Inverse folding.
């Protein structure tokens, strides 16, 4: 006669359970608030509050052509999230810090693009569920268009604050070349924010932005036209097949999304002129998972699960480095591609800025 036993669940600490429950409740609010922030952005609610200084729900609804009842509930939700401030007496306002985060599109602290991109990423839920089961990927181009725009809006202020002032000067001799006139390729350029920032700063140089996503290249061309730039062009091309030779080749926050990062790095190696430089910007991460178990790592691992890893797995090879690859893995990629000199040029709390040379 055979008997079976059922393993008993270990006893739990009720205080620790309630702490976890409280954290989950906070995350419920975060998930919902992200969508409400994007609604406020789309309807101009944040900027209308900033312009007025202080508003009632009725006043904000009148300013924005929206329904007072919806606006009243939205204001209460945003005040509970501490994204706007309840001033008492049924009136709401923005602190200077809230204005910076939610209305100043040029500020490195501008958060609207992040909310737009992250909420867009969740709309791929059915596709990602199926990818979990099949092991296949979900291409960047398969996501909601808000992901592309939100990504540009989120990264552009950081690039504007750091690229010309800190990152390029950290590279060996690159700024002098750019001032004199160099050829630059920005690979995986998306909507072209990084390309345009460099082209404005160095009018003697010629810049080409490449991306496989045709809709993003169209947006980049429109942005360059709007900026009145004559020294920048954008073309559809993959990271392994873009044409030309260059003094500087850049990858901004995109190598980890590629199916064959070694192949992409090898194309950089082959396309560099003598003395040329590879600028690689990637999310700042430690080489061990334990180093990344923090609020920043939480965001990057989550985005990587929904966006970056599926994008890589949708392509050839499907290396799936992930958004928290870390410097050691990136160095391996560079060495496999033939780079003999590879170093950390500088960093920010969110970025690793790496330099490769032949």
């Amino acid at each position: 006669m055979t008997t079976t036993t059922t393993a008993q669940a270990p006893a739990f600490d009720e205080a620790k359970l309630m702490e976890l429950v409280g954290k989950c409740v906070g995350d419920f609010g975060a998930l919902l608030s992200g969508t409400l922030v994007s609604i406020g952005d789309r309807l101009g609610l944040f900027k209308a509050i900033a312009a007025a200084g202080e508003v009632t729900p009725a006043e904000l609804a009148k300013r924005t052509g929206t329904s007072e009842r919806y606006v009243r509930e939205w204001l209460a939700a945003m005040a509970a999230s501490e994204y706007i401030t309840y001033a008492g007496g049924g009136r709401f306002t923005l602190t200077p810090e809230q204005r910076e985060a939610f209305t100043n599109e040029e500020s490195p602290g501008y958060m609207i693009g992040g909310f737009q991109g992250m909420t867009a990423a969740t709309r791929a839920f059915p596709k990602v569920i199926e990818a979990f089961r099949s092991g296949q990927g979900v291409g960047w181009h398969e996501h909601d268009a808000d992901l592309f725009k939100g990504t540009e809006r989120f990264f552009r202020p950081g690039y504007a604050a750091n690229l010309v002032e800190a990152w390029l000067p950290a590279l060996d001799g690159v700024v002098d070349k750019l001032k004199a006139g160099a050829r630059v390729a920005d690979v995986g350029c998306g909507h072209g924010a990084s390309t345009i920032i460099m082209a404005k700063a160095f009018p003697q140089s010629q810049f080409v932005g490449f991306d496989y996503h045709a809709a993003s290249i169209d947006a980049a061309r429109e942005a360059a036209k709007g900026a009145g730039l004559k020294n920048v062009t954008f073309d559809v091309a993959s990271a392994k097949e873009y044409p030309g030779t260059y003094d500087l080749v850049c990858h901004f926050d995109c190598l980890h999304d590629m199916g064959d990062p070694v192949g992409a790095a090898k194309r950089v190696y082959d396309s560099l002129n003598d003395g040329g430089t590879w600028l690689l910007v990637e999310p700042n991460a430690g080489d061990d998972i334990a180093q990344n178990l923090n609020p920043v790592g939480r965001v990057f691992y989550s985005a990587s699960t929904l966006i970056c890893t599926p994008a890589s797995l949708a392509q050839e090879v499907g290396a799936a480095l992930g958004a928290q690859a870390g410097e050691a893995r990136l160095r391996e990629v560079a060495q496999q591609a033939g780079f003999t000199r590879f170093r950390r040029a500088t960093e920010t709390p969110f970025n690793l800025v790496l330099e490769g040379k032949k």
